[in-house]
Amino acid sequence: MLIFSCTSNPNKSDSIRIRWVHDPETLDPMLLPNQAAFDANNLLNISLLQADVLTKELAPALAEALPAIQLVGDSLMKLGYRIKPAAAWDTGRPVLASDVEFTLKLMFCPGLSNEVARNQYRFIRAVLADARDPRRFALVCQGQAIEYQKASGEFFVLSEAALDPRGQLRRFALADLQNRPAAAPPDSALQALARRYVAATTGHISSQLPGCGPYRLVAWEKDRYLTFQRKPHWWADQLRPVPFVLQARPRLLRYVIIPDAATATLALRRGDLDVYPQMPAHEFARLQASPAARASLSFYSTPSYDVVTAGFNTRHPALADAATRRALSRCFDAAGLLRATQLGAGQRSTGVISPADSLNYNDSLALLPFDPPGAAWLLRQAGWQRAGQADSGWFRSAGLHGGRQQLRLVLRYRADESLFATIALQFQATAAGIGIPVILQPTESGAFTMALRTGDFDMYVRVLKGNPFMFNFTPVLHSSSVGISNSTGFSTPASDRLIEAITTADTRVHRARLLRQFQALMQQEAPLVPLFFLPNRIAADRRLRGLHASSLKPGYSAATLERGPSSSPTP
Amino acid sequence: MAILTFAPLSWAQKLALLWLGLVVLAAGLAPVLPLPYRPGVPDLAHLAQAPFGPGRHWLGTDPQGRDVLSVLVFGARTAMLLTLPAAVMAGLLGAAAGGAAGYWGNTTRLAAPWWLLGVGSTWWALRLPVPLLGLVVAALGLGLTLATRLYRRPVPAWPVPINAVVMGAATTLDTIPRLVLVVALAASTAVSQPVLLALLTLTSWPYPARLVRAQMLRVRALPFIEAARAAGVPAGQIWLRHALPQALQPLRTTLPLSIAGLLALESTLSFLGIGLPPDVASWGRLLATAREEPTAWWIFLFPSILLIISMLSLNALGRQRRILG
Amino acid sequence: MVRLVFWRLARTGLAVWALASAVFLLSHRDASAALLLAAPTAFDLGATHTAATPAQQLAAQRAVQQRLGLDRPLFYLSRNANPRIGRVQWHWNGRRNQYHRWAAGLLHGDWGTSFRTGQAVPARLRAALAYTLPLTGAAAVLAVLAALALAQRLAAAPWWQQPLRVLLTAVHALPLFVVALALLLVFANPEVVAWFPAYGLDQSPEVEASAWGHLATYLLHLVLPVAALTLTAMPELALQLDAALARELRTGYATTARAKGLAEPAVIRHHALRNALLPTIAQVTELLPALVAGAVVVEVVFALPGMGRLLAEAAAARDYPVLVGGVLLTGAARLLALLLADLLYFWADPRIRWQS
């Protein structure tokens, strides 16, 4: 029995343990391949603006305030920022405009894996420094979109002194780096900088980039855990009051990687885990029903901005017309699926904008009904005819090219998520009821991404992730993204115009009107069938305070967590 | 001479036969049995429902709302049409390859014209540079073969490394982690029942091949083989009639075990999300869904019981069957 | 004998190389998926506020291609189907190809760097092996010992022979994840008995403890995973050995030994066991590559780091350098195992020695 005495005791250390499903793989602040990497960087680094889970808005973090907008001509926009005077690196050096400029240039430094950041921040064309105030600067943006005000401040600011102490990047202008041809001769200064950066992001944790965030990474065991330690003296501690986005309470934060949901639930029950985000619906319901679990855990459920969506491949002749797509979308029993898989939480929607967004959500539209006879009727309207025998399906003549089209569908979805399998089975059973053969193809996630890209499907089911800040449908539904990220291949001149108008709308009210118009158009055209918005479920140790469950990713606020007084261990 | 004789059946074997007969019957009659639910149709009102709950789900439902009873019945059908053939085919393939490798090693020889024919046609079939060259070589080989037949001249013979080829192929197949193979396959084609059958056969023959080869190495050194050789019986006949039946001995116990292994592999594929589509009922996938709902004992228990009883039955039959040489 | 072993080793090395090359070529043929996953495009709503133009997207893709070294042709020769003349054409690419670079790097000890993390492949493999080997090694040793002990006792036909065989078959019928989940839900569940920790290797590493304390914690964490692996590996070994022993005990020499007055256990140990081990040797050496390849199911269920998860995740993320490195390592272990099996055959059965 000697060894049994070593089983963990929940209060042995004052670290707060949060579950992650996967290792973040890399903490490169420009790569950020997954949510875990983003959350970790949020502790290590600070950006100009950061999401505030209380207000669901971007709030100034490194910046003193939201940037001042100044329109220049009809195609440029100037955003005036000032960095908080207290902001400083660990060495005591202040954070200055030059650091911001350095970070933006680093995104275009050749030899780094910064392709995503490049495409995201290409709209910032220049950084204008202020001669009198080294903390003041203006970002010159190409185009005039109200979203730029927030989008321009979302990158993590890196230290020029740590990466480029001799200021070699200052020789280059931002625009030069942006327009640098791929075939340009290699520059030794840029190469050296790239090497230093790669060494800092892939090397041992002791060589990690020094950030101006509240935490240091003290341990990273791949596929096991990451430990973050609060810096004893951090610049934002001097602020009075400390803004919400700059609060950092826990002394030690430990993210533990537990891939299996059942294992994570057990760990939570035993007190080996404090926060379990993104909990599966049935585990959540089961724990809520258990009196023992209710005594030690608290439960949070908030709506999220992730919508479960079915999509049609509009490039296929049988699915090219909106009438057929509308007919098929009536075969989804969204209400039943929501009840069965989310146990009542979550919310149905008419479009891809969350019903929680009362300004932009088009509430005059009706939810799609589950109506198989109606679907059959609509199919007939679309020119389809049921063949003589009962099981032979639907046909229509294919117009110009002659021949007959048959309505047979291949439905793809990611195989590792059982929610999709349930939806697919329900659709298949309903479609079979009205004589449409559906082949289910659960696909491994890498191959699924590939299939979406190459259009190798008739229909798909997936989760479309969204956020409340940005309304840009260009990647998903615009004609310029067909073959890249517009996986349905849908585009009409009217929808293209509307999408462009939304991205360049100058006021929120105007944008809201356009967005409502857009939702109506999408329901009419039905390239996507939004089924329902998923809820975001968190179970946590009852004694934790300051979890602030929220709709924003990751769904809680890690840096404000505190153990209640009853459990604080003796120092 | 080898004959299969059956010892009189014990009561355990009678039970085993009864059970397997029942499974086969259920598999055959599945479409006409009066089941309240079809296996691929989810009942959204009753997800992960315990047995004997509301809604006539006598054995409960899985987390997708499929009726456990009908999944079990139709799963027997899938097992009959997928796992059993895969195990048998893998066993046959392995026995032939491993038996040949063990008996002949690398020593058997093939006349040069046949070699020319083989290499030439492969060249042409693969469309290597100048495919015509392959055809010419093949024609040359064919001509030489005919010529030697006519003139009965001795021609040079080159050794065929059967052992090296078989063991090399087995090693190669075994070494690539099965997951990689399956992921590569799933990326290129959709996983359907025939594809999975081919995949299972292809990845599981090396093991019986190794066992048979190991046994064959022993058998070919036995006196009665020597005697047959001395008596001038053709090599092929000795191999097929005398050596192989002896060398198959280890397969008797491994065949039922390999069926279990294949069922487990199929369910692990489902666990990894590369298995059969969800509208094909399978015991393995039913087990795999237990992961999503660990407290749903009925998803765990019923397929496990079926698996265990079927394995015990197969074992009971396999163990007692005597092969007398 | 030495010459024979030398030749086998040489052949072994060649086979590993051929295998790794095959995996390299096969996986890199599917490089477009790796590119796509390395530079994710925005399939999500509002992920980017400025959609890049198709030209920019293409430029970004080319940059990724260059960064990952996927811009060169794959092999010395490439086969291009030319639809214009309807024929297949062969093209010589010279030494500027991916395969040449990989092979040359490998000869200089450079295994490449991971597509996903930019780390060197050997470092990742080493880290994973450090966790995998104790786990799978302990399980393999325990399984083999238990199988030997059980089979010998079973062969003596005690009263519990039949029930134990039934039990072994029953356990063997269950997939590994079922066994692992069952162990977890019984022995690490506060609602049943929480004797063992549920995940990982230690829950609070920053707590100061003695070396013995650390070791005890580590062992305690390994109990359930090792038990799950042992339970699934052992029945097959035991049943096979049991069947072989039963067969040997019916042969003439066993009867002779009994007639000489030897006790049954002595007949089993000194006469039958050595012959019965022959098929088991194949199975035992089979375990060796599995030791290196890790056990993905157990690693996922008990949240342990290791080769299984590393390779599975590399396959899912199309991280080919890690995958090829893992295959190389597994392949080496597999071929070593074959060599070992042949040597053991020599030892176990003199007739084979005499034949070769």
Give a quick rundown of the structure.
Chain B is mainly alpha-helical and 325 residues long.
The rounded Rg of chain B comes to 25 Å
How is the largest sheet of chain B built, in terms of strand order? 1-4
Number of strands of chain A: 22
CATH class of chain B: Mainly Alpha
The SS-based structural class of chain A is alpha+beta
Enter the CATH topology name of chain B. MetI-like fold
Shape of chain A: globular
Straight-line N-to-C gap of chain A: 29 Å
**What is the helical fraction of chain A, as a range of percent?**
25-40%
Structural class of chain B, by secondary structure, is mainly alpha
Instruction: Catalogue the unreliable spans of chain A.
Output: 1-12, 567-571
- What would you say the CATH architecture of chain B is? Orthogonal Bundle
Radius of gyration of chain A: 26 Å
The largest β sheet of chain B comes out as: 2 strands, antiparallel
The stretches of 5 or more residues of chain B where confidence is low (pLDDT under 50) are 1-6, 321-325
DSSP E strands of chain B, number: 4
- Number of continuous helical runs of chain A: 18
Oligomer: heterotrimer
How many individual helices of chain B?
13
Principal-axes shape call of chain B: elongated
Q: How much of the residues of chain B is beta strand, in percent?
A: under 5%
Could you characterize what this model shows?
The complex is a heterotrimer of chains A (571), B (325) and C (356). With 571 residues, chain A is α+β, with helices and mostly antiparallel strands. In chain A, strands 11, 12, 13, 17, 18, 19 and 20 form a seven-stranded mixed beta sheet that branches. Chain A has a four-stranded mixed beta sheet with strand order 1-10-9-8, covered by helices on one side. Chain A has a four-stranded antiparallel beta sheet with strand order 4-5-7-6. In chain A, a hairpin with a 3-residue loop joins strand 4 and strand 5. In chain A, helix 11 runs antiparallel to helix 13. The radius of gyration of chain A is 26 Å and the shape is globular. In chain A, 52% of the residues are buried. The N terminus and C terminus of chain A are likely disordered. Chain B is mainly α and 325 residues long. Chain B has one domain: MetI-like fold. Chain B has 13 helices and four strands. In chain B, the strands form two sheets. In chain B, strands 1-4 form a two-stranded antiparallel ribbon. In chain B, helix 1 crosses helix 13, helix 2 runs parallel beside helix 8 and helix 2 packs across helix 10. Chain B is elongated, with a radius of gyration of 25 Å. Chain C is mainly α and 356 residues long. Chain C has a domain of 225 residues: MetI-like (MetI-like fold, Orthogonal Bundle). Helices cover 70% and strands 3% of the residues of chain C. Chain C has a two-stranded antiparallel ribbon with strand order 1-2. In chain C, a hairpin with a 4-residue loop joins strand 1 and strand 2. The longest helix of chain C is centred in the middle third of the chain and has 39 residues. The radius of gyration of chain C is 26 Å and the shape is globular. The interface between A and C is large, with 85 and 76 residues.
